Amino acid sequence: MSEHAPPETPIPTRLNLAIVAAQLAAAFAVFCGTAVAGSWWELALLAAAFAVVGNSIYAVVHEAEHRLLHPSRKLNDVLGAGMALFFPAPFHLIRQGHIGHHQRNRSDDEAFDLFFDGESPLLRRLQLYGILTGMYWWVVVLSNFVVLVRPSLLTRRSFEFNRPSAALMESLNPNYWGLIRLEAFLAIALHAAIVWGIGIPLGNYVIVYFGFGFSWSAMQYVHHFGTERHVLRGARNLWLFAPIDWLWLHHNWHRTHHRHPAVPWIHLPRFGRAEDPEREFLVRHYFRMWRGPRHTDEHVENRYAGRIIR
Hints:
The longest helix has 26 residues, at about 40-65. α1 (about 15-35) runs antiparallel to α2 (about 40-65), α2 packs antiparallel against α3 and α6 (about 135-150) packs across α8. This protein has 13 helices and four strands. The radius of gyration is 19 Å and the shape is globular. By secondary structure, it is mostly helical. It has helices at about 15-35, 40-65, 75-85, 90-105, 120-130, 135-150, 165-170, 175-200, 200-220, 240-245, 255-260, 270-275, 280-290, and strands spanning about 115, 240, 280, 295.
């Protein structure tokens, strides 16, 4: 699976760097507002604002995961790791999870809207509804502490009870553990410094940050729920509102992205309009997911099972 932008779809390097600078400024403004917010409606507005800003930051991290943020691999990874601290998550951990997602998509190893004979329907429902309610984001945040305190838990053996998690753990590259632990430490240190340095009440910080956490988690399977069981075609293109779609770097052209993972964000609409122009409203599909997982006898093999992420 190529991770280099084709010559006809170059990386918009200067624009990407300008976007990163604007995102950092916007995040700082939200943090300053959170420090002085004194009413529920102010916190609600700041949480909504950070949902937009935080998902824009994640869109930049996503480009870096595919090594499409900057032509220099070193600078790409440094920028990705730095922006991932605002998630907060170790870049080299979530990158492996995302690249693995492209390999496992809609196979039996990653079909959160389905359950098979011998699997617990209750566990599948908890997993899907955890995604829909923001709990998935909390799991990723808590991984910062796990990789520092008990990294031995992040193995396939610890997750044999849950097939998607076991497949993820099996794909992790041990060569990255040093970097992952460093990034986890820096993520915790950064957020402690933000709260203490700006003087943000901890309750305010959690409420505003969860505006991002909930929205990010809620959208993590909306592009795949109920789609074709095919690693490339098992996704859909969605829309929200044009300004937000741009701020989120066309992430909602998701089927197009899965078909062309080496194409930078700025070119996705052109490819999508030519190949898969149909787009549906994201919020409608979010509520469709609340129907919950269904049983199936159809099995789709993960052709990349056991492969370590490079």
